[in-house]
């Protein structure tokens, strides 16, 4: 995991765990979230969900304890939902300007995040939270059912004016995402801090979905 993902999970737990009022966000729901860095191979697959699930199961094979893995990809409608699971590579090789050049003159700028969280419990059973499908390995083979795949935003026609919030090549494509479904008209890199934090708290996300489920389910030490 990385520090940004740990902070995002702690934020969601703090929002949706009823036992977290007035407590340190790192212990919301009486759950300890800690970062674990593992050198795991990343498979090539057609969906982010498949990549995240394989990564989570491989991590469990090493750690032998409950864990959470998050992965995401940007899906652009005009590009056939590319880059999707190849977003990491596109961040490095295409970058912000490259994506804008690809979409130059394109009127359909719809985009969405293929965002996936995989939770593996102490028995090695996995539950997947994501926009494409929900999958579980509990009590048998992997079973999945489809989810809503609507586009929640669009790609800005121009590069952002501000970069501080989205520094680093790993966030090159995310800089120009405009969450129009949430009522915002600027890319996330440019919106005010108030709007950005409101978006993180209130916009539908796998982080919040997982935290709501976790709060209902009970407590167990988790690694992210």
TrEMBL record:
Which cellular component, as a GO term, is one annotated location?
A: cytoplasm
The Swiss-Prot or TrEMBL record annotates one GO molecular function as: nucleoside triphosphate diphosphatase activity
| InterPro entries xref list | ITPase-like_fam, RdgB/HAM1
Has the keyword Hydrolase been applied to this entry?
Answer: yes
Write one Pfam family the protein is assigned to.
Ham1p_like
* Biological process according to GO: nucleoside triphosphate catabolic process
Source superkingdom: Eukaryota
Keyword vocabulary terms for this entry: Hydrolase
What the entry lists under Gene3D superfamilies is as follows: 3.90.950.10
Report whether Transcription regulation shows up as a keyword of the record: no
Q: Which SUPFAM superfamilies does the entry mention?
A: ITPase-like
PANTHER family, from UniProt? Answer: INOSINE TRIPHOSPHATE PYROPHOSPHATASE (PTHR11067:SF9), INOSINE TRIPHOSPHATE PYROPHOSPHATASE/HAM1 PROTEIN (PTHR11067)
Q: Record's family?
A: Belongs to the HAM1 NTPase family.
Protein name, entry field? Uncharacterized protein
Q: Which organism is it from?
A: Micromonas pusilla
């Amino acid at each position: 995991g990385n520090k940004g993902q740990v902070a995002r999970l702690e934020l969601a737990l703090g929002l949706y765990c009823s036992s977290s009022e007035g407590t340190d966000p790192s212990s919301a729901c009486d759950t300890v979230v800690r970062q674990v860095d593992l050198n795991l191979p990343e498979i090539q697959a057609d969906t982010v969900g498949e990549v995240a699930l394989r990564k989570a199961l491989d991590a469990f094979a090493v750690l032998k304890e409950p864990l959470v893995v998050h992965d995401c990809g940007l899906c652009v409608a005009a590009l056939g939902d590319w880059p999707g699971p190849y977003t990491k590579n596109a961040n490095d090789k295409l970058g912000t300007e490259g994506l804008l050049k690809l979409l130059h003159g394109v009127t359909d700028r719809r985009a969405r995040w293929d965002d996936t969280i995989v939770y593996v419990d102490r028995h090695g059973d996995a539950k997947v939270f994501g926009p494409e499908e929900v999958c579980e390995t509990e009590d048998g083979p992997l079973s999945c059912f489809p989810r809503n795949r609507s586009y929640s935003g669009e790609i800005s026609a121009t590069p952002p004016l501000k970069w501080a919030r989205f520094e680093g090549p790993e966030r090159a494509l995310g800089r120009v995402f405009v969450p129009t479904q949430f009522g915002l008209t600027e890319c996330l890199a440019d919106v005010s801090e108030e709007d950005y934090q409101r978006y993180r708290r209130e916009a539908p996300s796998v982080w919040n979905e997982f935290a709501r489920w976790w709060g209902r389910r009970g407590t167990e030490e988790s690694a992210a």
